[in-house]
Amino acid sequence: MVSLLARRRLVDARSVFERVILDSSVLLGDKSARLIAAADLSFFRGYWSSWIAVEFARVRTEWIARRLVKETPDMAEANRRLDASRSRVNVAISEFSRVLTL
């Protein structure tokens, strides 16, 4: 863990990466948790837009729909998975909203 003093030096250095816009492709990627954690630790100030938030939700919904078509003929199971997916998207949007500037 980076000490508070070291963290302040990194943030106060006014680096080229002080402001970063995180696109939906980044937020959907495998490094999303690391980027959100870095923004939360003030290594950079993360930004996103309402369009990016909607794109994130749309793509995540499309992913689950495609998997459902391939894997699940049972409507009750499909509904359970959609509800679980909705919950995960809501948690992610909530976390992004806490850390990123709209």
Number of strands: 2
**Distance between the terminal alpha carbons, to the nearest Å?**
27 Å
Q: Could you tell me the mean pLDDT?
A: 85
General shape: elongated
Find the structural class using helix and strand composition: mainly alpha
Strand order of the largest sheet: 1-2
Flag low-confidence runs.
1-6
Largest sheet: 2 strands, parallel
Instruction: Determine the fraction of residues in helical runs and give it as a percent range.
Output: 55-70%
Round the Cα radius of gyration to an integer and report it: 17 Å
Order of helices and strands: HEHHEHH
Strand content: 5-15%
Number of helices: 5
Summarize the structure in short:
Helices cover about 70% and strands about 5% of the residues. It is built from 5 helices and 2 strands; from the N terminus they run H-E-H-H-E-H-H. It has a two-stranded parallel sheet with strand order 1-2.
Question: Explain this structure to me?
Answer:
The two termini are 27 Å apart. Helix content is 68%, strand content 6%. The chain is mainly alpha-helical and 102 residues long. It has five helices and two strands.
